[in-house]
Amino acid sequence: MSSNTRKHRRAQCQCLATCTNPPLENSSFCKQHLRFCPRKSPLTGYEPNYDPIIYNNTRKIRESHNCFAYAFNHMDVPSDEKCSEISCSIPFHQPGRASGYPKWSKVKGKRCPDLIARLKGDVKGLRMTNFTSKCPGKTSKIALVADEDQDYHFYRQDSNGMWSHKPGATKVTNLDADGRPIYDPSLASRKYNKSGLNYDKFCSFLCAPKDKKLKFKRGGKHSSYRKHSSYRKHSTKKRRQHTRKLKHN
Ligand SMILES: [Zn+2]
User: Which of 61, 140, 145, 190 has its CA 20 to 30 A from that of 205?
Assistant: First the structure.
């Protein structure tokens, strides 16, 4: 198990990796760090605003954009034929498809080095960074994580300094898997018990350009394949359906 694999089972204070105080309910922080956290991810001024309504309110947008598109603030409104309020059957954008990487169905697992190579292929000028470094001008910080057997996931830093994400075809949220606001996605909870998705690998923080129109390509299964059914305990079928809804491919 490498050092970037999250071993913590319980929610932890997101101020410092070394903080062992329990986080307060509905908070990113423990009591000590609630008032002040010395460790920060500096803003560049190019961060998008946290405005979930844009992605959440219509089925057409909500079901045609996944975490990848959302993290890069990429809006690609499909035609009514492919995705409307009544039915949506368009696949999501996938990292590496625009730069000619193989479909996920041809690759075993979703691993950080492969994901990062794909992103660098798709997005010129993308570079790796860490939580405390400031990204260069005209870029803002995003984060890539992986459940290497099943799925990848992205977060983005918004202009309020906090982080948000869009799990698959579901709504944009600023909460982690434990329902806590995300101050640092590398310390946030990323284990979803209902779907069985566990994004335990933290791949990297990245500086994503915000001054150019990106070219992403859609691919894979139709999003209508992800059924909107609620998960019931001990039902493999329901669990699979729920996973499909949350997964990004
Ligand atoms: Zn703390």
Answer: 61
For the chain, what is the HEC assignment? CCCCECCCCCCCCCCCCCCCCCCCCCCCCCHHHHCCCCCCCCCCCCCCCCCCHHHHCCHHHHCCCCHHHHHCCCCCCCCCCCECCCCECCCCECCCCCCCCCCHHHCCCCCHHHHHHHHHHHCCCCEEECCCCCCCCCEEEEEEEEECCCEEEEEEECCCCCEEECCCCCCCECECCCCCEECCCCCCCCEECCCCEECCEEEEEEEEECCCCCCCCECCCCHHHCCCCCCCCCCHHHHHHHHHHHCCC
What is the tens place of the pLDDT at every residue in 27-76?
A: 999 999 999 999 999 999 999 999 999 999 999 999 999 999 999 999 99
Distance 202 CA to ligand 1 centre (A): 20
The rounded Å distance from CA 24 to ligand 1 centre is 9
Report CA(244)–ligand 1 centroid distance (Å).
35
Rounded-to-integer distance, Cα 57 and Cα 53, Å? 5
CA of 189 from ligand 1 middle (Å) equals 15
Looking at residue 214, its pLDDT comes to 92
- Ion ligand 1: residue ranges with CB closer than 5 A: 13, 15, 19, 21, 30, 33
Domain ranges of the chain: 1-249
pTM of model > 0.85: yes
CA of 22 to the centre of ligand 1 (A): 7
CA–CA separation, 163 and 237 (whole Å): 32
